Amino acid sequence: MMPNTTPPPRTAAPSKMLGVAALYCLLSWGTHSLVPAYGPPGCFLFSSGLALSILLVGGRYYFWAILLGGFLANVLVDHGLWLSIFMSLTSAIGVLISAHLILPDDSFEPRLRSLRDVFRLYVYGGIVGSAVAAILGTTTLLLAGVVNGDNYIGILQDWWMINSLSIILICPFAMRRVREINNLYRQCSTKILTESMIILGLTLLLGSMIFLEYMWQEIPQNILDMMRAYVMLTFVILAALRLGVKGASLTTLLIAMLAFTGVSRGVGFFASDHGFLHMGSYWFYVNVLSWTGTLLGVYFEENQFLLDKLVKSEASISGELKLILKAMEYHSVVCTTDMQGIITYANRQFHVLSGYAQGKLLGLDFRLLILNVHHQDIFQEILQGIDTGFVWAGEICGQTKDSNSWYLQATASLNTDLNGMPMTYIIIGTEITALKALEKSLLDQRNFYERISETLGEGLYVQDGAGRCTYLNKEAERLLGWSRDEFIGKSVHETIHTVTATGDPLSIKQCKIEVHNHSGHRVICQDQVFVRRDGSVFPVSVVSQGIFNEGEYSGAVLAFQDISITKMHEFELKNYHDN
Fold first, then answer.
1. Which residue has the higher pLDDT, 274 or 23?
2. Average of pLDDT values for 425-438?
3. What backbone torsions phi and psi does residue 320 show, to the nearest 5 degrees?
4. What is the pTM of this model?
5. pLDDT tens digits for range 31-72
C-alpha cells in the first residue's frame, strides 16, 4: 500500500489561538466601551476588519479564535449567554464568508500587491461579505427581540456600513505583517522617515482643526471651506505616493479617528451627523479617502516594484554582458564599422590577429584587410538583405600588417536605430588560421596519396561505414565504366557486387568482402565478380581491409584487378588436361 503523502492541514499553536482570541475580545469590548449608546453593532466597529485580516493572513483555522473572542466580548458587555453565543457565531460566520469570497483560490495576495487584490478585498469583503454579516447579525437580534420589524432595515443598513468601514480602514494596514513594517523601518532613509513624520503631523494638526474645531475661530472661512474639501484628500494622496499602502492606510485611519471623535462630540466638519449609526456623510467621506489612498498606494508600489525589478534586470544583464565581452576579448574577434566600412571599434583579439598595435586599426577600411576578393562586398550584401534581417556568415581571409594571412569564421550584421535606419556593421568571428593550415596539410597529403593511387595498375576505391563510395581512382573508373563523380556517394555493394560468379543474387549479408571488412580481417578473394555500368560481369581479384576508428567500423579500402584473361587461361588449361 502506498504511503500517505498528503501534507497535514495547517494549524495554529494553542497559544496563538488564545492570543488572537484575547486581542479580538479586547478590541471589540474596548470599542463598545467607547460607543456604548449605539447598541450591539457598535462593539464590532474595528473588530470586523481585524478578524478578516487575521483570517486572510493567518488562515481560516483562526475562525475558532474569532468565535471565542467575540463570545467573550459579548459576555463582557452583558448581552446574556444565548445572545452572546448567537451574536459571536453570526459575526464569525460573516467574516468567514467574506474570507471565502476573497480567497476562492491562491491568486489573492493578502499584502495587496496589485489593484485586483484591492478590488477583491473592498468589493467581496467590504460590500458583499459585510452585507451577509449584517443580515445574519440583524436577523439574530430580531429573533432575540432586541430589534423589531420597524427598525430592522435601519439596523441592517447601519450594521453593513459599520462592517464595511471597519474592513476598508483596518485590513489594508493590518494585513501588512509586523515583520514587513519592521523591515520597512530599517530600510527607510532619513528622508523618508522625515517625510512620514511631516505628513502624519500635518494630518493630525489640520484634522484637529477641521474635525475637532481646534483653532477654529482663527482660520478665515474661505480657507476653512477649502481645507474641508481638499486638504485631507491631499494628505492621503501624498502618503500613498511617498509611503505606499501602509502610509496611506495609516493616514486614512488617523483622519477617520479624528472625524469620528468630532462626530461623537457633535463638532467639526461632521457635526450635523447625529449619532454614530446615522452618519452617512462620514461613512461616504472615509470610503472615498480609503479607496483613493489604497488604490493609489498599491498602484505606486506596483510601479516601483516593476521599476526596481527592471533596474535589477538591467544591472544583471549589464554584468552578464561585461563577462561575455571580457571572455570574447580573449577568444573572439569583434569589430564594428560605420556605413562606409571604416573601423570604429576593434577588440584586443583583432589587434593581436592583424598585427597592429592597440588602437591602430581605428580609422582603417575593413575591406582593405580582406584578401578573398569575393567577400569584400559583405557590407553591400548585408545592406541589401536588411528588410529580411539578413546576417552574413562565412570565412574571411585577411592579411596582417606583415602581409601574413589570417582566417576568420565570421558573422556580420547591421545595427539599426529605433527608426530602422542603418547605423553600424558588426563583425564577430573566431580565428581559424591554424585550422585552415591543418586543412591545407591534410589536402596536400590527400593529393599526394591520390597521385600514388593513380599510378597503380589496379582499381582502388574507398567506402565509408555505410558502404558508400568516397574515393575512386582512374583504373577503377576504367574497369567499372563509372566516372568518379558519378560513383562517389553510391552504395558499392548495391552497384557493382550484386551477383555471385554463378549469376545468383548476392545480398550484403552474404557478401564475403563486407563480412570480413566488419570483422577487421584482411580479405583476399579470387572468386568474386563485379558488374560494370553497362551490366556486363567480369571476374576480379580483390584485396580488402576494414578501417576502424576508436573501435568503431568506419569504412574500408579495396583494391581489385580484372582477372578475365587469367580465368580464361585457367579454363583452357583445364580443358587441355581433361582432353
1. 23
2. 88
3. -65, -40
4. 0.55
5. 666 554 444 334 345 678 888 888 888 887 888 888 888 888
Angle at which helices 152-174 and 130-144 cross, to 10°: 140
Nearest to 88, CA basis, from 63, 60, 124 = 63
**Residue 10 backbone phi and psi in degrees, to 5:** -70, 135
Query: In a 3-state reduction of DSSP, which class is residue 529?
Result: strand
- The position carrying cell 576568420 is 408
Other Cβ atoms less than 10 A from the Cβ of 519: the count is: 11
Q: Using alpha carbons, list the distances in angstroms from residue 392 to 41, 110, 371, 380, 441.
A: 78, 53, 17, 10, 28
What is the pLDDT averaged over residues 375-401? 73
Q: Are 347 and 333 in contact (CB under 8 A)?
A: yes
In what helix (H) or strand (E) does residue 431 lie, and over which residues does it extend? strand 422-431
Of 272, 207, 448, 558, the residue nearest 216 (C-alpha): 207
Each residue's pLDDT tens digit, 158-179:
888 888 888 888 888 877 654 4
Torsion of CA 92, 95, 101, 105, to 10 degrees: -80
Grid cell, residue 296, equals 493609489
Mean pLDDT of 6-29: 71
* pLDDT surpassing 60 at residue 182: no
Query: Is pLDDT of 487 > 90?
Result: yes
Secondary structure in 3-state letters for 274-312: CCHHHCHHHHHHHHHHHHHHHHHHHHHHHHHHHHHHHHH
Residue type, 164: S
Q: Residue 157: exposed, middle, or buried by beta-carbon count in 10 A (0-12, 13-18, 19+)?
A: middle
3-state secondary structure of 271: coil
- The cell for 173 is 494596514
* Rg of the chain over all Cα atoms, to the nearest angstrom: 46
The four Cα atoms 256, 259, 265, 268 give a dihedral, to 10 degrees, of: 180
Q: Over range 191-216, report the average pLDDT.
A: 81
DSSP-based helix, strand, coil % in the chain, nearest 5: 60, 15, 25
Does residue 479 register a pLDDT over 80? yes
Which of 352, 350, 382 has the alpha carbon at shortest distance from 366?
Answer: 350
Please give the helix or strand (H or E) that residue 18 lies within, else none. Answer: helix 14-34
Position of cell 479617528? 257
